[in-house]
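We read letters as residues; the fold follows as tokens. A sample entry reads:
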Amino acid sequence: MQHRPYNDMADKNDSSDDHEFDLFRAEMRDAERLHHDRLLHTKQKPEVKVGKYFTSSAQTRSEHFSDMFSPETVGNEEYLEYRGPGIQHRVFSKLRTGKVHIEAELDLHGMTLAHAEPTLSQFLEQCQQQGIRCVRVIHGKGWGSKNNKPVLKSKLNHWLRESNSVLAFCSATITDGGTGALYVLLKRTHGSSKEMA
């Protein structure tokens, strides 16, 4: 008859494991059991990214943008800028260099024109209602569009120029999206003459 040698170290390890398990159970005593045994992955639909002041549920809009003609197509990497009448050089210079406080943001990148137009109109209206002065609008560079043409960027260049809400705009700095985004300066609605800080 063979005798198994007594393994003192094995018993100590078992004792240590039991102690660790008891500690773990004590720590987890208030945990609630999950009632499913697999991880569910759900694909969320892309949403418009807007500032914290806004929702995308409003149905009314104050202006429609004209589609009477196709605007001139701009380049994917082309720098855009528009300076309305009366905008001081100092103010426009701060806008161009990104030395402005962005109070809200709208991401139109990847949207169809049919969706982008009312979304932009609604966003500008909500900004004015909240007294928002400067926003960033992301449009992308159009590399994924048909023939790599920046259709949305070209339309936005046209739409913003004809908007009654917009005083000026220009392509963002590299850190804020470069030629794939715009800084937009909006009119104040309450008669304030205060310039951009």
Notes: The radius of gyration is 29 Å. The chain has a mean pLDDT of 75.
